[in-house]
Here is the input.
Amino acid sequence: MRRTGTLVLLGSIAHSSIVASESLPRGVGPEFAKFYESKPTFACIGNPSVVLSSSQINDNSCDCPDGSDEPGTAACANIDALSPEQPLPGSLTGTTNTTAALPGFWCANEGHLGSYVPFLYVNDGVCDYDLCCDGSEEYAHVGGIKCENRCNAIGKEWRRLEEERRQSEERSAKRRRTLVKESRELRRRVESKITALRDEIKDLEVKKIELQKKFEDVERSERGKVVKAEGQGGKLSVLVGLAKTRVAELRDTLDKVLDQRDDLQDKVERLEDILKKLKEEYNPNFNDEGVKAAVKSWEDYAAGDASGSSKAEVVDADVMEILKEDGETSGINWAEFVEDTTSDADVVYNLEAYLPSFARDWVHDKLQLVRVWMIENGILADNPASTGESVLVTAARETLEAAKNDFNSKTTALEESEAELAKDYGPDDIFRALKGKCVSSHVGEYEYELCWHDKTTQKSKKGHGNTNMGNFVRIDREMADEEERADGKGLGKGQRLVLRYDNGQGCWNGPNRRTDVWLKCAETDEVWRVSESEKCVYKMEVGTSAACEDVNEPGVRAKDEL
Ligand code: MAN
Here is the structure.
């Protein structure tokens, strides 16, 4: 049919009960009825100064400059905005400046929707059922044509399709509501994560200051500690350290006493020799009382010595054994005690080795705290590490570092969450629920994939690998101006959401690939078509319920309506 596809439903009155009254002239639509009330005269609608007799209405002669005297004929079709370009041969005005008062010939279409038909189509010998299902525009039966009234069938089919469309719209709206709900929940989770992180960071700030102070205090007090290297480990080890020092002192004293004894023994021997000599060489006949008494005392001393003393003899070999340096083969092997670095505290630490790895860090922290507490309260001895840093200082430093690391990672997580919350996820935050999900479609030699708020990809069906067509940047709005498609899978006319994906894989000798993803409301998410208007600049047309109108749930008032 010649007009199919170019027809425009003019001023459709979406209610079949609104029809022009019987008394009105043919072709007058309901909204113009008031101009045609039965009067002897008729004033042109757009030019009321031009007054005609009522009999001039629909007399097939265009008398009004705006054509309003011919609502039911094609006589004024030349000034009809829907007619071909002016001026036409026979045009009254000869200009295109005239504005037609009426939008067209009114077809009441009872049983369907009333609509206007361009005046040019009136009595042109063609049934225009798309606009005039009752066939009333061919009332003159030009060339014998008779256009039967098909409004019942056409109206019924239209209502069926309309019902289908309405149901689909409802399903789309329902899915949209589900997405909005999911998005709200996701937003709520990010918000509560942010609140929790802010609290934790605040606590960690305080904790960091406390731990810094504690670390400095511990470091200071540890620097002044006396019991260090010798007395490693627990109380036993301290005792061993003290005993070793004591034994060394005693051995030193014994050594000196022995030297003194030997000196004294020398002296005694020399004195005995003198007295022995005196006894042997003195003159008993010489009456010297002093010499006689000395000899007598010597004889008594010598007699006592010869009878043997009951005193225990100190055996030199034994003393020499005692004086030998302690080591593995003699005396006490101190190393057995001192070199054993396993301290009482280590026993506590070793418990960790038996734990599963996921619990180890947590338990380590707790044990560290317990251990420090025990050391501070004198229950455990401190255990200097090989670095020379005491365990107490190490523990304080590690706890401080752990708090700092925790603070830094939580600060980063907070920044990420705040940025995430500030991102544009479209009306009602709806794309938050879709983020990371993908839809794809086979077009030509490629499979094209759209991942919401992530990237677009061109996948070769011949196994040439995937090409990034852009990474998500932002959401824009643009006007679409395309014919509606019969299957509804097209952008149509009106404002549409456009997702920009930029900076994809570089194009051979060209810019980086980018994609504009145009969205139109649909029941299911689907990539309808992909085109490459310029090299490596792609346009994806996608149906999704995320792009549907923000319609409220039936029976539920929106907040601002209350
Ligand atoms: C590939 C595809 C095409 C693109 C050319 C550019 O073949 O990504 O879409 O036009 O590269 O060289």
